[in-house]
Amino acid sequence: MTTEQINFIPRLGAIAPDFEAVTTTGRMNFGEFVKGKWALLFSHPADFTTVCTTEMSGFTKRKPDFSALDTLLVGLSIDSIHSHLAWGNNIRE
């Protein structure tokens, strides 16, 4: 890896690097998931926190607006898939 690759900071409109991840909806290959659409990648520090729950709920409420703009939402976190699923159930309750 070169110094240039290590110091790369993505800019708005830049093509995101491809990656694979296990998500709450199954395995995802980012490049295949996006397929030429816009994607908004956002992160939150931890499940079961007030701020993160508010943020995730806000994106969920605005999902139709993003869909109208042909934009996909992808939330990133360091927590486990099991934590995400439990948190989602907790929010729904």
Structure described in brief:
With 93 residues, the protein is of the alpha+beta class.
Describe the structure.
With 93 residues, this protein is of the alpha+beta class. It has a domain of 57 residues: Glutaredoxin, CATH 3.40.30.10. 43% of the residues lie in helices and 22% in strands. The chain is built from 4 helices and 4 strands; from the N terminus they run αββαβαβα. The strands form 2 sheets. A two-stranded antiparallel sheet has the order 1-2. A hairpin with a 2-residue loop joins strand 1 and strand 2. It starts with a helix and ends with a helix. The model has no long low-confidence stretch (mean pLDDT 85).
Keywords:
alpha+beta; two-stranded parallel ribbon; 4 helices; Glutaredoxin; 93 residues; two-stranded antiparallel sheet
SSE series: HEEHEHEH
CATH topological fold name of the domain at 37-93: Glutaredoxin
Number of helices: 4
Counted beta strands: 4
Instruction: Tell me roughly what share of residues is in helical segments.
Output: 40-55%
Q: Given this structure, which CATH class of the domain at 37-93 is correct?
A: Alpha Beta
List the helices and strands and how they pair.
Layout: H1 3-6, E1 20-23, E2 26-29, H2 30-34, E3 38-43, H3 50-68, E4 71-76, H4 81-92
Parallel strand pairs: 3-4
Antiparallel strand pairs: 1-2
